[in-house]
Amino acid sequence: MLVVGLSFSTRLYKIAEPPHVCWDETHFGKMGSYYINRTFFFDVHPPLGKMLIGLAGYMTGYDGTFPFIKPGDKYEHHNYWGMRGFCAVLGSFLPIFAYLIVLELSQSHTAALITATLLIFDTGCITISQYILLDPILMFFIMAAVLSMVKFSRQRYRPFSASWWLWLILTGVNLAGALGVKFVGLFVILLVGLNTVWDLWRLLGDLSLSLVEIAKHFLARVVGLILLPLLLYVTIFAVHFVVLNKSGPGDGFFSSAFQSRLIGNNLHNASMPEYLAYGSTITVKNLRIAGGYLHSHWHLYPEGVGAKQQQVTAYLHKDYNNVWLVHRQGDIDSQSGTPDLVRHGDIIRLEHKETTRNLHSHLHEAPLTKKHFQVTGYGINGTGDINDLWQVEVCGGRKGDLVKVLRSKVRFLHRATGCVLYSSGKTLPKWGWEQVEVTCSPYLKETPSSQWNIEDHINPKLPNISLSVLKPHFLEILLESHIVMIRGNSGLKPKDNEMNSKPWHWPINYQGLRFSGVNDTEYRVYLLGNPVVWWVNLASLGFYLIMVSVASIALQRGFSLSQKKIEHAHVLKSEGGLLLLGWLLHYAPFYTMGRVLYYHHYFPAMLFNSMLTGITLDILLKGCDLLLRPPYSDWLQRVGQMVFLFSVLYSFYLFHPLSYGMTGPLAHELGSVMAGLKWMNTWEF
């Protein structure tokens, strides 16, 4: 009851402060609004977290009308506390789950209380739980999955009982939840998977079990830990696609067929001319997933990047700069009643409607893909040169075949150089507005990157046909959405003026994250772990490795140890080993990631570190009887526990303004609540 009371009170205190958008609330609050409004959007994470945020807002009276444009925007009369409160409630369960996990693993209330104390009074855990973010939802499912796994392991002597099935199924449900919020949920799936493999290996060695019984155990785990989570994960996406049925800002990331499902999209129940003709106004979409629309704008390539001509890129959003006009090889299109249709093998010129420059290529190298040629916009009012001519090729077609809008896969072969128009998928630097590079590839093999389709098609002189035949089935859109998410995740770049942290920074609490406010007149919130908690966690990793080594040697050499000490050694090795593995799985992979990384990515690993600290410190303090006789050893143990408790509470008292907000002088100025507490120069509060 004490852990529950403290956990909820520390997370729900000042939940409505500050009454403006903080940090990534601008993304996830906005996405919650999209669900309430049923507007389709694109995000690099699976949908469960945002769906739950939207549901929490809807249930507490939020109407989905707040725009969430930028951090600092005032919420005013909008009801935002429901979404914040939902995240804070899930964040409040983290110390409770950690307490129960450690209690189950170590059978020690002291170890469980040490863990709960670390998490309840960690300023970082409090801050990250109090805002409209995915992190508390993700960590809730991770911890619930670990608790369910540990409880399930404790049922090993009652196989196939009701409680055995309950914890197995709950483990599967929570694994689906973790993966449904962020792909980081894969790490806890790996932890549970390795634990399950070890469990089955142990059962295989139990000669009292028949092979039929072992097969039953195996199948039960396949159903509970693979099939059930997979079914739930797919169901999350099914709900996501049913709810988001209106056109929105995410349309352009997806194929033309995908977009035809969305109410309000120009392709939904649309009709347009069936075959491409000269004089038509069109948009051209690359068939690579997240390949983008062929796009140009007034900006030129910078000095030193090929010829200093107009940029041509691929852009993922719908935009008037995606519109092109189709002309014949000469300058004159048919002026008669019915325009001529474009056929396989025709030579055409594409004129950018907004800037009147022609799509052009030449032998200068492309900006990023150095073995390809540069593509530019050239000429003015449609006049250019021989490098503006492209031959249309329908994939799988023959000379004279017509180009079907949306359905034909088309390639554009450059007449002068023989290369093919290509979307590389690489993101251009700031000068290219971080749009996608378009090149002319000398490698003529057919790939989605060199294939395009005609999406929008306007020609008043041609009859229109309905596009309803295009709608894809569920498995197609499920696969496409995953490819787009994975590509988007790997392409994440840091925002302007934002610190991109390194994984080695995180365990040492090297640098926090500014959630709100910069100057002394603003309400400032800074995400930073309680230094005592984080540094005790770091030290305990070292202590754990030393203690487990000593315990292993002592057991191996057959030293005469009391039964209690032997139990402690086994807890360190097996249960501590499980938590260390959890920490490594949630931390080590970040060293291999190419995407932008932030401090908050460490928090799931920090939970495992805190649980390991609980077990390590408890056994370390109980080892006092190796130094002193009772009652002195008991006194030393109590003193150690009190020093630990006082240190954590006092540091929480010192650093709590970082979580609950501060105004007035900055930390380096006199009269600041944080004066003298900037223990590391890299802390920016």
Automatic annotation (TrEMBL):
Record-linked SMART domains: MIR (SM00472)
Compartment annotation: Endoplasmic reticulum membrane
Top-rank taxon: Eukaryota
Stretches that traverse the bilayer: 81-102, 108-126, 133-152, 164-197, 218-243, 532-555, 576-593, 599-621, 642-660
Catalyzed reactions per annotation: a di-trans,poly-cis-dolichyl beta-D-mannosyl phosphate + L-threonyl-[protein] = 3-O-(alpha-D-mannosyl)-L-threonyl-[protein] + a di-trans,poly-cis-dolichyl phosphate + H(+); a di-trans,poly-cis-dolichyl beta-D-mannosyl phosphate + L-seryl-[protein] = 3-O-(alpha-D-mannosyl)-L-seryl-[protein] + a di-trans,poly-cis-dolichyl phosphate + H(+)
Tagged with keyword RNA-binding: no
Keyword annotations of the record: Endoplasmic reticulum, Glycosyltransferase, Membrane, Repeat, Transferase, Transmembrane, Transmembrane helix
EC number annotated for this UniProt entry: 2.4.1.109
GO terms for MF: dolichyl-phosphate-mannose-protein mannosyltransferase activity
Domain MIR, chain residue ranges per copy: 273-329, 339-395, 400-457
Top-level EC class: transferase
Membrane topology recorded in Swiss-Prot or TrEMBL: Multi-pass membrane protein
CDD domains reported for this sequence: beta-trefoil_MIR_POMT2
Main subcellular location: endoplasmic reticulum
Recorded metabolic or biological pathway in which this protein acts: Protein modification; protein glycosylation
Protein name: Protein O-mannosyl-transferase 2
Source organism per UniProt: Collichthys lucidus (Big head croaker)
